[in-house]
Amino acid sequence: MLAGLNLRIAVASVPPVIDEVTDDLDLSAAAAGLLTSAPILCFGLLAPLAPVLARRLGAERVLFLALLPLVAGLLVRADSSVTALFAGTLLAGAGIAVANVVVPSVVKGRFGRVGLMTGSYVATLGAGAALAAGLTVPIERALGWEFALALWALPAATAAAVLGLALIRDRGLVTARGGAGDAAALLGDGVAWLVTLYFGLQSFLFYVGLAWLPSILRDSGFSAGGAGALLALFALGGIPPSLVVPIVATRMRDQRALAAGVAAVEAAAVGGLLAAPVAAALWVFLFAVGQGAAFSLALTVIILRAPDSKQAAELSGMAQAIGYVLAAIGPVAIGALHDWSGGWDVPLAVLLALTAPLATAGVAAGRARTVRPSRVGGSDAPPTV
After folding, report:
1. Which of 88, 172, 316, 318 would staple 77 via disulfide (CB 3.0–4.6 Å)?
2. Counting Cβ atoms within 10 Å, is residue 189 exposed (0-12), middle (13-18) or buried (19+)?
3. Can you point out the beta strands (E) in 214-273?
4. Of 56-60, 194-198, 245-249, which gets the smallest average pLDDT?
């Protein structure tokens, strides 16, 4: 849970102060979008590394090691230069990329109550994003944006210390360890591709919202503080559904109806921002509910569609590798659309259109079936609680 609290802070702390950063460092809107997309691209490109490390070291040890570059990257951003800002963001993104992948494996292999544990983990992700969104602006006003971004290394270091102590006390934490792995076989599995597409589309919508909601709101007349507060609502509003949806999903025969309902909520939210921005608080809240539900459902589907924890790691690696590369395109592409069109109507219309394939992929991935069992590496021992 402590690890999860820190796995969105590096990304969520930048958008509330992006205007100050771009003004200070003379960045274009596309470059600002790239700054937000860079860690997401890391999430995708480095995700395949995580199952390999988990098989060698155990998923829990890999989770601890992943927190170390996160701490270092957040500290590097204290230097007020374009190079340090991007380098620190990439370093933090590398650590998050590996941590993202191994958590579903830990949940699948170690806990019996998959829905409860997945929901709790996703809730901590949202809580961390909300803290970063809500507190970065006040810290920036008092101490500058460099310190405001670097200060978030403290909770990450705390999580690393606690997990490190837990590993010292229990040397038997070896979830997903052993076996040669068969990740390549998933590339020919239709279920794996449906799960991956759903994960990628919901991530695309989330990271576009995280990157550009403050700018969309400020262009609609909100102050920097007001936009930051609504970004915090975007993160906080997703916590209740992220707690409930995995529990509900694991009790359902399949998750098709749930996926369709979640996509409908997101469509209403984006359509509202486009048609009636005066009620932005309502639409941001609905967007938050939809995104909290969609992300927690995506992680739950990864766990449910995998027959054991090793394949949960493999499927998680595939879904996040391809899905986050797709998501990384989002902030850059939407930023470029804004520059080209001179406003936010065209970008919001594109996001609204994407809710249709989101619903289609979610319904297909929600069918009650699993990916083909791995031909190598064997199965896990029975899960422990």
Report:
1. 88
2. middle
3. none
4. 56-60
Phi-psi region of 205 (alpha: psi -120 to 50; beta: other; left: phi over 0): alpha
Report d(CA 316, CA 332) in Å as an integer.
Answer: 24
Q: What is the DSSP letter of 171?
A: T
DSSP string, 89-128: HHHHHHHHHHHHHHHHHHHHHH-S-HHHHHHHHHHHHHHH
Element (H, E) at 306: none
Place of tokens 């003004």: 23
Cβ-contact 153, 71 below 8 angstroms:
yes
Closest CA to 290 of 260, 328, 263, 330: 263
All structural domains of the chain, each given as residue ranges with its CATH number in brackets, are 2-170+186-365 (1.20.1250.20)
Location of structure tokens 């970008």: 347
Backbone dihedral region for residue 372 (phi beyond 0: left; psi -120 to 50: alpha; all else: beta): beta
Q: Give the type of residue at 221.
A: G
State the average pLDDT over residues 374-380.
48
Q: How many CB atoms lie within 10 A of CB 326?
A: 17
How far apart are alpha carbons 236 and 233 in whole angstroms?
5
Between these two residues, 207 and 67, which has the higher pLDDT value? 67
Amino acid at 190: G
Q: What is the DSSP letter of 383?
A: P
What does the pLDDT read at residue 178?
55
Q: Is 31 exposed, middle or buried (0-12, 13-18, 19+ CB in 10 A)?
A: middle
Tokens of 225: 């503080």
CA 74 to CA 256: how far, in whole Å?
39
Half-sphere CA count of 116, side-chain side, radius 13 A = 5
Cα separation, 163 vs 170, in Å, equals 10
- Residue 212, token pair as written in the block: 């550009």
CA distance 41 to 89: 11
Which of 302, 306, 280 is closest to 370 using CA atoms?
A: 306
- pTM of the predicted model as reported, rounded to 2 decimal places: 0.79
On whether the CB atoms of residues 299 and 118 are closer than 8 A, the answer is: yes
Render pLDDT for 142-156 as a digit per residue (tens, 0 to 9).
888 888 888 999 999
The C-alpha atoms of residue 67 and residue 274 are separated, in whole angstroms, by 38
What's the pLDDT tens digit per position in 219-245?
877 777 788 788 778 878 888 998 899
